[in-house]
Every structure is written in structure tokens, then in C-alpha cells.
TrEMBL record:
InterPro entries: Peptide/Ni-bd (IPR030678), SBP_5 (IPR039424), SBP_5_dom (IPR000914). Transmembrane segments: none annotated. Keywords: Signal. Residues 1-23 form the signal peptide. Residues 78-449 form the Solute-binding protein family domain. SUPFAM superfamilies: Periplasmic binding protein-like II. This is Peptide ABC transporter substrate-binding protein.
């Protein structure tokens, strides 16, 4: 409690300071070339711009660039970044990439194919940073050409290698013995921005004057650390931030309540209870029992959670983790529930727990072997929508004999616990990949290749889930190009296993609301022009927005 109060005071002091620094013409009306953003950071920033570290605070896209930008908001060809062209050989085992010439690192060194080779080799041999399960062998043909060879057809690796690996400078990173844990305090990148000033409550990125794409019109981005969603709302009202992604009261009337600001809401976040599910990898607690996870799934009243926590901006979610409505054609007909039920089925929860050997005690809580079904669930202090969701869920689950206790942590503590598997339950959202295909969500969050024993950093299979059927289906999907009708059988196999196992217990598909200062800056993504997914914390999409924004009137 003391920590939460301290962070609240810090957040409010930052809001006041930022507001004081604004021109007297008012927040939404001011014209300037510094964009102030709030990404949801609660508590002090820890200096780390390592794009491969789970605790990095910024860098992908802004400082460190991928070869191409894939837009998950709209299906279309990837945008050339450090790469200009690419192509596969006939059997999908060799990827050839042409690189942009004339690019320099922010320290003045020349960018070449050797930097790309170094980065890809580093990822391939370092499991802790290998979020994509990349296994290719890279050859630098000359300064502007690389060839990546795979041991088997690997079409689906294309968007991951090209769009989700952040190219780092060999002349700097060759000195890092442990790239996964390196604290990258003085980042050297090719991106449109460089690190400016850093403080625990805020830091700035400044425009790179030698950026290959031209110096951005937006000269500076200032990131604020506040105490949580309510502080973000207060800052929005004060006009002291220009861009945030998160809930605000009465979200349908943003333009009326926050003059000069607009809102765009798009479905993306598959909100779930993450469970440390795998006892063989060191997970401890009742949540390691699939029956407990299934009981929680059926005990949720998602309609009530949507109303109380998300202002009815969320929508149904499939237990097979296809993103709806984007992946409507891929949802499996073999699922027991095509969509997670919106209302609780307490009888089903009781049936599952009783069959698994649990019995209710006098206090109404189920127990087994003398251990009551009581679990803690971690959440970031200040994430008011998620906190409300958990408080609501806690009341719902008491009706099925399960006690959950929300535990609020700073973002840094929460992220560290999530990465190391030091939790029973936590609330978060399952990410989408670099292209609009559920394969990437599956390969990131459900693959044995992307997890690790408790105590070691998983990236990002935080549940420690391991399933031979899922791994085999992922291996087959990787070999087949998008659009091949044979892919559906593998999607079916994965979805059926996820529904049975539920290492991430489905809640709702969160509508992601983003509020932005349309009066002070132009060039924002709109539903008619979704050139990037418009969430301030979505990387590298945010960098695409920064690069396109201009101060109003410029």
C-alpha cells in the first residue's frame, strides 16, 4: 500500500510538472514539436534500451529497426525499412534479402550486411532472446545482401525474421557476453530517434538528424511514468499528454470530454489469466492442475467483467486463440466452445472440480489433500481496468469455491515475475505476431521452444506450456505458405489442445482504446488509414506513427 501511494504522488507530481511546462494556450491547443506519451508505465523507469530484454522500456522501431515493417492492423505488403527487397527459393529453405545502402548507425559507423548477420546469429544461438524460435544460418554475400538458410521449409519464419528481429550494431554488441540481460544504457541504432534525457520518472527520445528516411518532423518524444490509468486520465484532462492507450471514463464521448482529442478503438488484446502451468518446469500451486484452470474458465461471468472493467468495449474471445473477427475463417469446428461463454456455468465448474478429487470445505472453498484452492493473481498497480476485472472475477469465483487474491505490483516487479515464472496467476494479454496470422501467437506463447524453467527468463511462453501435439502442428505450419488449405488441420489440432489445457485462461478480446491529441499533431492513424496499429505501447508500430506525425500548422 505504501509503495502504491508513493507512486501515486510521483505520478501526480509529474503530471503537474508537465502541465506547468505547457504553453498558456492550453494542452490540446498548443503547437510544438515535442509529443508527450504515456505507455502505462507505473513506477520508476529502469534504464534499459536492450530491444531483446523482457524489461526494456523502449527501443524496437524507434532506435533499433527491423528489416521490414509488417502492419497487423491491415493485411498488405510489408514496408521496406533496413531491407528493401526479399524473396524465397522454390522450396522455402532460403530467404534472400537486399539491404538499404547508405545507412549509418547513430554513432557514425556504417551499417552493413555484417550487422544483420551478427544480429541473426546472436538470436539463433541465444535462446533467451530467441522469441521467434529462429534457427536459420545467415551469410553476408556483400555489404547489401544477406542469405538466410533454414534446415527445412520455413515460410512462416519470414515475417518474424524480417519484421520482429531488431538489427543491432556488431561493433557495439560483440562486447556483450549475455545479450539477454545486457543493460543497454547508451543505445546505438539506425532508427528515426536517439536517446535524449533519461530520468526515473520520464525520458526523451530526440529526432535522429542523420536518419536514412530523413529527420522526423517530430523533434522529441517524452515518455512519462505515472501511477496508473487514473493518472493517465487526469493528465489527458490537463492536456499534459498527447497520446495514451488505455481506458478513460465515458469513452464514447472523448471528443466532448477532452476537447482537441480523439479516440480510436480496435480489437487486438486477447486478455487472459496467465498461469504458471507446468509443474515439470518448476511451477507450483493449484493452477498447475488443468481442472482448476478449466473451472476458472467456466466460472467467469465475462458479460459482467466487460461491463464493469472495460465499459463494454471488449468482445468475445475464442479458447483456441484465433483473433476475432480477423481470423473468423480459421476458427476450428472441433472446439467444444467456438467462443468462451459470456456467462458463468457454476454447475460445470463444480462438476470439473469434484471429478478431479476436490471437495468443498465448511468455508465454501474447494480443497484437495488439505490444500484449499486459494491463488494469488499479480497485476500492475494503477492498471485500473485489469484491477477492476480481477476484483469482479474474485467475487465470481467465490461462487464456485475458488479464492483468488489480486496482488498489485510495480510494472518492473510484475514483468520480472512474469518472465521468471514466479507467479500462480497474473493478468495480461496475449500478443499478436508480425503478420495477421494466429500462427505467430501460437509459436510465441504456446511453443516449447519459447519457454524456460521457472527462475529463468521465458520469452514469451510465460506459462511454461509444453505440448508435443502443438509443437508438431507448429512445425508443419512453418513449412507451408500462407493460403495453403492444408494449414487448417494444424490450426484445428492446436486449438483443440489449447482449449483442453488452458495455460492462459481466456477472458475477453479487449478493444484497445487510444486517445490522441488531434489538434496539436496531424498524421495519426485512422480507421480509414490504418498504416500502423495505433497503440502507444505497440512496437514497432509506435515508431511508424512518430515518423509520420507533424506539429499542427507545420
Amino acid at each position: 500500500m505504501f509503495l502504491h501511494k508513493r507512486l501515486l504522488l510521483i505520478g501526480l507530481s509529474v503530471v503537474v510538472a508537465a502541465t506547468t511546462a505547457c504553453s498558456s494556450s492550453g494542452g490540446a491547443a498548443r503547437a510544438r514539436d515535442t509529443l508527450v506519451v504515456y505507455t502505462g508505465q507505473a513506477g520508476d523507469y529502469q534504464l534499459n534500451f536492450n530491444p531483446y530484454a523482457p524489461t526494456q522500456i523502449e527501443g524496437p522501431g524507434t532506435i533499433y529497426e527491423p528489416l521490414f515493417f509488417y502492419n497487423i492492423a491491415k493485411d498488405g505488403p510489408p514496408k521496406p525499412m533496413l531491407g528493401t527487397e526479399f524473396g524465397w527459393n522454390a522450396d522455402g529453405t532460403e530467404l534472400s534479402v537486399t539491404l538499404r545502402d547508405g545507412v549509418t548507425w547513430s554513432d557514425g559507423e556504417k551499417f552493413t550486411a555484417e550487422d544483420v548477420k551478427f544480429t541473426l546469429d546472436m538470436v539463433a544461438k541465444t535462446p533467451a532472446v530467441n522469441k521467434t524460435g529462429f534457427k536459420g544460418t545467415t551469410t553476408a554475400v556483400d555489404d547489401t545482401h544477406v542469405v538466410v538458410k533454414f534446415p527445412e521449409p520455413s515460410y512462416m519464419d519470414g515475417p518474424q525474421v524480417l519484421g520482429q528481429l531488431w538489427i543491432v550494431p556488431e561493433h557495439v554488441w560483440k562486447n556483450y557476453a549475455t545479450p539477454a540481460t545486457e543493460v543497454n544504457a547508451t543505445p546505438v541504432g539506425t532508427g528515426p530517434f536517439q536517446l535524449g534525457e533519461f530520468k526515473a520518472q520520464s525520458f526523451t527520445l530526440k529526432a535522429n538528424p542523420k536518419y536514412w528516411g530523413g529527420e522526423p518532423a517530430l523533434k522529441q518524444v517524452r515518455y512519462l511514468s505515472l501511477s496508473g490509468n487514473q493518472a493517465g486520465v487526469d493528465a489527458l484532462k490537463a492536456g499534459s499528454i498527447d497520446w495514451q492507450t488505455g481506458p478513460v471514463p465515458d469513452i464514447k464521448d472523448v471528443e466532448k470530454n477532452y476537447p482537441g482529442y480523439k479516440v480510436i478503438t480496435l480489437p487486438l488484446n486477447q486478455v487472459a489469466l496467465f498461469t504458471c502451468s507446468n509443474a515439470q518446469l518448476g511451477c507450483q500451486g493449484a493452477q498447475t492442475d488443468p481442472a482448476v484452470r478449466q473451472a476458472i474458465y467456466h466460472g467467469m461471468n465475462r458479460t459482467q467483467i466487460n461491463s464493469l472493467a472495460f465499459q463494454n468495449t471488449a468482445s468475445e474471445m475464442s479458447p483456441g486463440y484465433t483473433l476475432q473477427p480477423r481470423d473468423a475463417s480459421l476458427i476450428s469446428g472441433k472446439l467444444a466452445d467456438r467462443m468462451a461463454p459470456m456467462n458463468a456455468d457454476t454447475a460445470e465448474s463444480d462438476k470439473i472440480l469434484t471429478a478431479a478429487g476436490y471437495a468443498k470445505g465448511a468455508d465454501g472453498i474447494y480443497a484437495k489433500d488439505g490444500k484449499p484452492l486459494a491463488l494469488s493473481v499479480k497485476v500492475v498497480a494503477g492498471w485500473t481496468d485489469y484491477i477492476t476485472a480481477l476484483e469482479t472475477l474474485a467475487q465470481q469465483l467465490l461462487k464456485i469455491g475458488i479464492k483468488i487474491t489480486p496482488q498489485q505490483l510495480s510494472w518492473n516487479e510484475w514483468a520480472d515475475a512474469r518472465g521468471r515464472g514466479q507467479f500462480e496467476l497474473l493478468i495480461d494479454s496475449v500478443e499478436q505476431g508480425p503478420a495477421p496470422d494466429p500462427y505467430y501467437t501460437y509459436s510465441y506463447f504456446f511453443s516449447t521452444a519459447t519457454t524456460a524453467p521457472v527462475g529463468q527468463a521465458a520469452n514469451p511462453n510465460f506459462s511454461r506450456y509444453s505440448n508435443a501435439t502443438v509443437d508438431a502442428a507448429l512445425a508443419e505450419l512453418k513449412k507451408t505458405d500462407k493460403g495453403d488449405p492444408s494449414r487448417q488441420q494444424h490450426y484445428d489440432a492446436i486449438q483443440v489442445e489449447l482449449e483442453k489445457s488452458m495455460p492462459y485462461i481466456p477472458m475477453l478480446t479487449g478493444g484497445v482504446p487510444t486517445e490522441y491529441n488531434d489538434k496539436a499533431f496531424t498524421g495519426w492513424p485512422t480507421k480509414d488509414d490504418l498504416y500502423a496499429f495505433p497503440a502507444v505501447w505497440k512496437r514497432p508500430d509506435a515508431s511508424q506513427v512518430y515518423a509520420k506525425l507533424k506539429p499542427a500548422g507545420s
